Amino acid sequence: MNTAELTPAGKLTAEELGTVHLIGIGGVGMGGLARLLLTRGVPVTGSELREWPALAALRALGGTVHMAHEATNLDGVDTVVYSTAIPQDHVEVVEARRRGLRVMHRSEALAAAMTGRRTIAVAGTHGKTTTTSIMTVILQHAGEDPSFVIGGEISAAGSNGHHGSGNYFVAEADESDKSFLIYRPHVAIITNIEGDHLNNWGDLTGLKAGFLEFAELTDPDGFVVTCADDEGVHELIAGLRAAGRTVYTYGESAGADLRISDLVSSVQGVRFQATLDGEPLGEIVLALPGRHMGLNGAAAVLTAMRLGIPLQKITEALASFPGVRRRFERKGTVAGVRVYDEYAYHPTSVKAALRTLREVAGDGRLVVVFQPYRVYRTRDLQAELAEGLAIADEVIVMEVFGPGEQRGPGEGGVALTAAVDLPAEHKVFVPSWEDVPAEVVRRSRPGDVVVTMGAPPISMMGDELLAVLAEA
Question: Are 191 and 299 in contact (CB under 8 A)?
């Protein structure tokens, strides 16, 4: 996508979009935008090809969902919104342009909804969904009633989009297609920078330059928050500070503004001691395990403190944080087998999630069902993905989910399975969705942890596994 063709934030308001039609309304990103618009009173329609879990809630909010992609879906519509996954020759995009309707990328519609608000935009290779969610919950707990759009549902709220009455707008900013470059945030949070989406950025140098450009788009009276522990952001920090921009850092590094220490992760969650500008804040507790979760929490704590949120409100919000769906989400337990769902698909996040789940498994074994996400990523990071999957005891690999992509010879699930350094009897490639539950039953036993992991469709498999395990 050419971001030069996109309209920067602040040019339109959501109400000026009229009736909005979202192509692929059931996806996480589109679904969150749809919820935001519907709760703001903007008429919304959308089209889908499968019955995603979020669609029932969108209908309940007054949205109209067409279960087909057809030109007639655009009758009565003023604005058509597409995502990067939707090709420009899509029937509804073509029809919208033929009719002369306003056609916008999802990020443009989201930017319109940000108009007049103090935006907190959360970016980074890993952890942005959880960090965005924690930031939202802190503001809610402090009585700020923020608007938000998140790439995952906050578990207790069952929502990933909402129009609030407060001044803040919290949004997950996506670097994958460069669309985060049209936002104009008051605060930019960058959790980390690591090689990903290089099909759009060319190389790591290009990706880092993109993040720097994003950070430079913050308001002159705003600030940037990032992780002092992450090598990928060191050049960014230096460049911003040299230009006179305000940057605050968090992490275990000695020079961090919010320094965390004595970090302990267990099945019950993660806790650490924190100091801000050398002054002790006391113990911070988050009811989600994993060092990476601790860092996500620290990013939100630092941001909230700099915004003037009282520490007590922050710690209370973190202690009660319910988690995010598809981020270490426990689906249930059947016959002594615990089933989780996890969105991780990049090698770093796969490793972090599986190490944490191994702690949870205790004396049990760890069984992972992995659906790779995107052909280019699976190909380019195959060795690293295989290394991460080898943390598990049993590995079931599905075929790559890559809408619009073509797999070349030797690419895909078969090659990834072969690369996993486990004995042949402990790994298997299962291309058919229908065959996966039986394979899980065959490989699991009481005390084990089973996790479905990877691309969006696999999020719907957890309930199937629980049902089949109950019948076994």
Answer: yes
